[in-house]
Structures are given as C-alpha cells and as structure tokens.
Amino acid sequence: MKTYTYDAAGNPLSDGATTFTWNVAGKLSTTVNNGKTHAYRYNALDQRVSKNGPLGSKFTFFYDEAGQLIGEYRDNSTTATPTDDWLVRQETIWLEDIPVAVIRKPTATGPIQTYFIHADHLNTPTE
After folding, report:
1. InterPro entries recorded for this chain (predicted)?
2. Among 56-60, 70-74, 83-87, 88-92, where is mean pLDDT lowest?
3. Which label site among 28, 47, 55, 70 has the fewest CB atoms less than 10 Å from its CB?
C-alpha cells in the first residue's frame, strides 16, 4: 500500500516511491523516482509543453486552438543534434469538446494501440 504526503495546497509531495515538486502556479515541476528526475515546462497558457528526463529523453506536447491536448511526441534521436526522428507517443482525437479516442505507440517497434473513450449522459469521459 502506498502512503501519500501532500502540501498545503493539496498537491502530492510523495507516494513513497516518487517525490513531486510544484511551481508557484501549482503546476508539476519535477518528479524523482529511483534517482531519475523528470522536469516539466509550461507555456503562458499553463499548458504542459515538455517533459525532459534522464539521459536526454524529451517529450513534447501539442494542443489545438481550443487548448485540448492533441499529441504527445518523444524525441527518439540518439544524437546531440536535432533530427527528424520523432516518435508519436500519443494522440487524442476530439469530437468538439469530447475526447473520443486515444492512439498510442509507446515504443518505436511496438504496435499501435487504439483506446476508445466513452462519455456518460453528461458528456464526461469515462473508461
């Protein structure tokens, strides 16, 4: 069983394995698990735009004009110079304001996975 600790704002600080830090705007700033740190960056609209991890791993997040997350991409390059080697990690398909599907490709060689999202009578996404 995990034991959670929280700050005064209700943000988790630890779950026993991972520690979390939060910026002054209340957004996740870093996570540390087994000595591996991930740092998160946000744009002026408070949207997460990147996650940088150990050994140079980098994830970039993209949003549509309505502010809905539409894609998560991982820089799959192994060099220190920019390349076109980006791996689609996750894309979300929207029908107006309702997410209807998520397409994932967690690894470069693994299969593409499609998850359909169902909404209840109030258009709230459920599993």
Report:
1. YD (IPR006530)
2. 83-87
3. 55
